[in-house]
Amino acid sequence: MTIIDEAIKAKAEYEQKKDAAIKELLNRQREIEAQLKNLGYHAVATKTKDQGPAKGQRICSKCKKAGHNSRTCPENKAKDHKGKVSRNAAA
Ligand SMILES: [Zn+2]
């Protein structure tokens, strides 16, 4: 057996043990949560609310930005003032 084989085997064993440890911890966690529930403790739901734009949020079809729609899009205004907008910055 080469050292490479040993390393691969050791890695596989490590992964197996790691998985087993994780499973055991998760089982324990479940037990603890059940016990906490029995004691009247309600775990705080860790829902990840702040993950990007919400599903219901409308996205502008003009500029693809959230928070407004194509009717209220700032790009509409930009078109009204052709030339006058953002000229002083260039010079
Ligand atoms: Zn827009």
Provide a brief overview of the structure:
This protein is mostly helical and 91 residues long.
Q: How helix-rich are the residues, as a percent range? A: 40-55%
Mean pLDDT: 82
Q: What is the β-strand count? A: 0
Largest sheet: none
Shape: flat
Q: What is the gyration radius calculated from CA atoms?
A: 28 Å
Give the topology string: H per helix, E per strand: HH
As residue ranges, the low-confidence spans are none
Secondary structure category: mainly alpha
Bound molecules: zinc ion
Distance between the termini: 73 Å
* Number of helices, where a helix is a run of at least 4 consecutive DSSP H or I residues: 2
% residues in beta strands: under 5%
Report on this model:
47% of the residues lie in helices and 0% in strands. The longest helix is centred in the N-terminal third of the chain and has 36 residues. It contains two helices and no strands. Bound molecules: zinc ion. The site of zinc ion (ZN) has 7 residues, from loops.
